[in-house]
Amino acid sequence: MKAIGIIAGACLLLYIGYRTYRFLNLDKGLAKKIEQGAIVLDVRTPAEYRTGHLKGSVNLQLSRLHTAKLPLDKSKTYITVCSHGLRSVKAMNLLKEKGYKVFNGGALADLENEIKQ
């Protein structure tokens, strides 16, 4: 019984840490950036994208961002998004290293909520 309590406590701490990480890494003012023409770049797999996505978003799987030539315009602003927020941070960092102007939109549900507000 004690082991179950320890495991449950560890899971709770991991979850709280994960939510805090997501909150701290999520950029602010994204709805306004989208209104000003920023492109939502959904870095989930094509199968995930087909299950639901933001209207007007572009699907470019995270693994494809490692290629030398990307079908993206460096004069545009991008907002990365994925299912839980971890891949969007990785995508943002990869694109920034390549010279793109990019912001982290986190999880798709988080960005959808910000746009609705």
Automatic annotation (TrEMBL):
Gene3D superfamilies: Rhodanese-like domain. SMART domains: RHOD. Transmembrane segments: none annotated. It comes from Fluviicola chungangensis. SUPFAM superfamilies: Rhodanese/Cell cycle control phosphatase (SSF52821). CDD domains: RHOD. Residues 34-110 form the Rhodanese domain. This is Rhodanese-like domain-containing protein. Pfam families: Rhodanese.
